[in-house]
Design a protein that fits this description.
- By secondary structure, this protein is α/β, with parallel strands linked by helices.
- Helix content is about 45%, strand content about 15%.
- Strands 1, 2, 3, 4, 5, 6, 7 and 8 form an eight-stranded mixed beta sheet that branches.
- Helix 2 runs parallel beside helix 3.
- The chain starts with 11 loop residues before the first helix and ends in a 6-residue tail after the last helix.
- The C terminus is likely disordered.
């Protein structure tokens, strides 16, 4: 006999509960899909804005946009930090900005705004040579160096290629000299119980080794090299400044002076800022920044991936 309860219909209340449960689940699924879609649109829009910003920065290459008025402008190139291969004050970056500034048809004058303690004589020499080349190619476009906090050694090596040099009365200028820095740890390894192993091919190959004692002949040779580079530096300064330099025995000793003292010594022509030079000397108050910067993505990758290498490279003695 069949069980009468098997064909008995479900209670109406239970059927309503199931329908409500299915409806709530469907509604929640739809709501979640909409939320996911909205967040997806948000993040895609954010990514698009980010990529467009990177593209604009990359294309502009750090330059300010030229004035829409059509009038001429003053081109500005910042030389900030140590002059060398890695920093923004490398010869490649400065020369790139210089060429773009001179090639711009609206450029009435160029300002090299320098804030540098010095650096590589080679990179400073590259920039110095390029300034002279561009001045000869574009004789109607003058170049002015404007010193900020400091313009010493390699920074001043670049500045002397300008038509005139301006500074603040409290700026530091000069340091016409050459230095090579190192350390000596002779005997340190013995005290620590560490055996030093060094193999070379060449009688003087290890003359800069900080764990080996210096030899008089090596020191004499190094002093001769530094003297030659110093003589080259002095010749560059005399070429750029000419008869404006005063006859002072300390001029090429490596000392630094204030901008006010620099005027008296002939190292600086006058006191003035970048805006003053643009407005009163060049006669083009509108300043356009032609400072060359690496694309943003490259700067980020260099900052992350090359940090350790840069620290190690800076620990190596360098001529300054």
């Amino acid at each position: 006999m069949d069980d009468p309860s098997a064909s008995r219909p479900e209670p109406i209340a239970e059927q309503g509960f199931e329908r409500k449960l299915v409806s709530d689940l469907l509604s929640a699924a739809v709501t979640e899909q909409r939320r996911t879609r909205r967040w997806g649109i948000f993040f895609k829009s954010l990514l698009a804005v980010y990529l467009v910003t990177l593209l604009v920065l990359s294309l502009s290459n750090g330059q300010s946009l030229t004035s829409l008025s059509g009038a001429g402008h003053t081109a500005l190139i910042d030389i900030e930090g140590v002059v060398g291969s890695d920093p923004e004050a490398s010869a490649d970056n400065v020369v790139t900005g210089l060429r773009e500034a001179f090639e711009d048809a609206k450029t009435k004058g160029v300002i090299l705004r320098i804030n540098s303690p010095g650096g590589s004589a080679v990179h400073a020499g590259y920039v110095n040579d390029e300034v002279y080349r561009l001045r000869a190619k574009y004789p109607d476009i003058p170049v002015y160096a404007v010193i900020m906090d400091v313009c010493a050694s390699g920074g001043y090596y670049i500045a002397v290629a300008a038509n005139r040099i301006f500074a603040d009365k409290a700026s530091l200028v000069g340091s016409i000299g050459v230095a090579m820095r190192s350390f000596g740890f002779v005997g340190t390894l013995d005290r620590l119980g560490i055996e030093r192993r060094l193999w070379t091919a060449g009688e003087h190959k290890s003359f800069l080794d900080p764990f080996s004692p210096t030899k008089p002949e090596d020191v004499d040779h190094l002093k001769g090299v530094l003297s030659q580079v110093h003589r080259q530096f002095v010749d560059v300064v005399k070429k750029g400044r000419g008869e404006r330099l005063k006859d002072d025995p300390n001029l090429y000793s490596g000392l630094v002076w204030t901008g006010e003292e620099g005027v008296a010594l002939g190292l600086v022509d006058a006191l003035g800022s970048s805006s003053y030079v643009a407005r009163e000397v060049i006669g083009a108050e509108d300043i356009v920044d032609f400072t060359h910067k690496e694309p943003l993505l490259e700067r980020l990758s260099d900052g992350l991936g090359g940090a350790v290498a840069k620290v190690l490279a800076k620990s190596v003695p360098a001529i300054q």
